[in-house]
Every structure is written in C-alpha cells, then in structure tokens.
Amino acid sequence: MMRFDAITLFPAMFAAVVEHGITQRAHREERWSLRTWNPRDFVDDAHRTIDDRPFGGGPGMVMMAQPLADALAAVKKNGGGTRVIALAPNGVRLDDVRVRHLARAGESLALVCGRYEGIDQRFIDVCVDEVVSVGDFVLSGGELAAMALIDAVVRQLPGALKDASAADESFAAGLLDAKHYTRPETWRGMAVPQVLLSGHHLQIAEWRRREALTLTARQRPDLIERARAAGQLSAMDEGQLRIAVETAAANQAAH
Ligand SMILES: C[S@@+](CC[C@H](N)C(=O)[O-])C[C@H]1O[C@@H](n2cnc3c(N)ncnc32)[C@H](O)[C@@H]1O
Predict the structure, then answer these.
(1) Closest ligand 1 atom number to CA of residue 135
(2) At 90, phi and psi to the nearest 5?
(3) Does position 164 have pLDDT exceeding 80, yes or no?
(4) 41-68 burial, b for 16+ CB within 10 Å, e for fewer?
(5) Which residue's C-alpha comes closest to atom 20 of ligand 1?
(6) Site residues for ligand 1, CB cut-off 6 Å
(7) Distances from the Cα of 61 to the Cαs of 117, 120, 233, in angstroms?
(8) Is the pLDDT score of 165 beyond 80?
(9) What are 206-240's pLDDT values in tens digits?
(10) What is the residue with the minimal CA distance to atom 4 of ligand 1?
C-alpha cells in the first residue's frame, strides 16, 4: 500500500480525495493510505501560532520552520515520509513522467502544504527532498496541489483503474488523448465521427491515433518534439503529421 502523509493546516480538505471517485475506491481497497498532520498540534502557545511576519518586511505571514519540522518528525517516527515533497509555485513542474515514477517507486510521501506567503526557506533547505509545482499559477495553499499529486499518482497504482488503462490516457504514449463521444449519435445537429460507429477496431484505433497526433501537434507541439526524440513516432505517424500541417496551412490560407 502506498502511504501519503499530508502536513496541513486544513486536514478536512483531503476528504476530496479520500471520499470521492476512483481515489476513494482505491483507498477502500487499501491501495493507498493518507494521514494528516496539523502543525498547530505541535506548538504549545495559547494561540497555537505557526506563522510570523516576514523578516525584511512585506505583506503577509510566513509559516515557521519549527512546527513543520516537529510535524515531519512525528510523521517519520510513525514510519512515513521516506521522501519529503513540499508543494510550491517555485518547484519543478509536476508531469506524467514524474507521477508515474512516484507511483512505481512506491515510497511513502510526506506532502508539506504551505499557506500564507509560504514556508521559511530553512525548513525547505534542511527537511525537504523535492519541491513540486502543479503549474504556473498561485494557489492559496498547497492542499489542492498535494491532492492533485495524490490523485494523479493513485490512478497509476496497479489495479486502481478498473475499466480503463492508464496506458491509453494523455501523455502515456507521449501524446494527448483522442476526443471522446457517447450517446446520442447526433446532438444539436452534430453527428459522431462515422468510423466510431463502424465496429471496425483497427480503423477505430487508426482514427484515434490520427486524432491524437493532430490534436497534439496543434495544442502541444512540444510534446510532438519530445515523442519524436524518444522514438515514439512511426513513419505512418510522421506521414499523418505532415498531412495535419499541410491541412492547417491550407485552412489558414483559405481564411
Ligand atoms: C499563496 S501561496 C504562496 C505564494 C508565494 N508567495 C509565491 O508568490 O510564490 C501559498 C502556498 O500555496 C501553495 N501553492 C501555491 N501555488 C502553488 C503551485 N502552483 N504549485 C504548488 N503549490 C502551490 C504553496 O504551498 C504555497 O506555500
């Protein structure tokens, strides 16, 4: 079972992953566990203070190192936190490769969630193995980022996905996933691509590959470059990409 320990001022937020959907089922099936640790429980002043004003001035408050270090020490004493990850916008951007690696490695992860202006840097320098960002934007706290990481890692754990294979999803083969359609066959005058109704599995697979290539080339050309460098594109894929580029150019010229 993969173990997560979240160090957080808002433990109740984690109900979002424990009590809903695929992560809930995987949690019930004991594929992963979560324990939350509130830094306020590791201070003994009357106000349970865990933050203070920033040295050098400026707005907001900073989370103090000691309550976080004490909470982390408790995690480790309890057998968790083999790897310590802090969530912060200045971290390395989380991606599919890192998520799959974390799921495969199966180390127990302590996730340190910042609030306010962030965490005293000395705690990060001394106690944290890795700083992770979930994107180039600022959240109010690390909890949503930690839950994004937990959700993404848990769905990669063996058996977590029942009817779908994580191998078919976006990024798995270096490309975005193809578009999806369901009933009714016609909605607001728009028909489902005919090939999907054909029952012809090979043609459907080819169509999906083509769609994935075209969509990725349009939305994320960087992923195409990476897939090419990793040898993930066949000669047929390259032919399809050339057609996609020519079609896009022709469409542009027509407008
Ligand atoms: C309001 S933010 C602090 C922002 C910080 N002062 C800055 O400008 O980079 C509070 C906390 O939210 C979390 N956080 C915010 N954005 C994040 C992101 N993109 N990825 C991961 N964690 C994030 C971090 O734990 C951070 O300590």
Answers:
(1) 19
(2) -90, 10
(3) no
(4) ebbeeeeeebbeeeeeeeeeebbbbebb
(5) 133
(6) 87-90, 113-115, 117-119, 133-135, 137-142, 145
(7) 6, 10, 49
(8) no
(9) 999 999 999 999 999 999 999 999 999 999 999 99
(10) 117
